[in-house]
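Appendix B. Chain record.
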Amino acid sequence: MDRAHDLPQIFAVLLRPGVAIQPEELDTFVRGAGEGAVVTFAGIVRPLENGKPIEGLEYEWHATLAERELQKVVRDVASRYNLLRAACAHRTGFVAVGEPAVYIAVSALHRQAAFEACAALITELKRQVPIWKVVRGADFSGYRYLEEENHAIH
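Structure tokens predicted for this chain:
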């Protein structure tokens, strides 16, 4: 396969509120392209925020920009790391503690590219995609959480 002329296949989606991530679908998407490595990442809602228990996170998003930016981020990272395929799903609406809020799967010819691309993808997603989270729990009452590394208020 002449990778210099092939564009990676990508799949990127923001799921409607209440729709769960199906990791096996993303895993299947990235397989079967002659890969030597598949790397996945699941971002799980933690039970504590600033040391206090929470019920979950409410993900808000910019309706017209978020999915377009997510697709751009996935496409850019896939091209930069010469991936074969890349998939990313991010939930919106309420996500309970212990559930995945984001899932990424990438495939590449070699493991180093796959690991680096997966890490870059979550970093760039948090920086560029207009999604932010509102902490839900007794001690927070709708506290909007801004992560220091994130310019998009994710």
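Further analysis of this model is presented in Appendix C.
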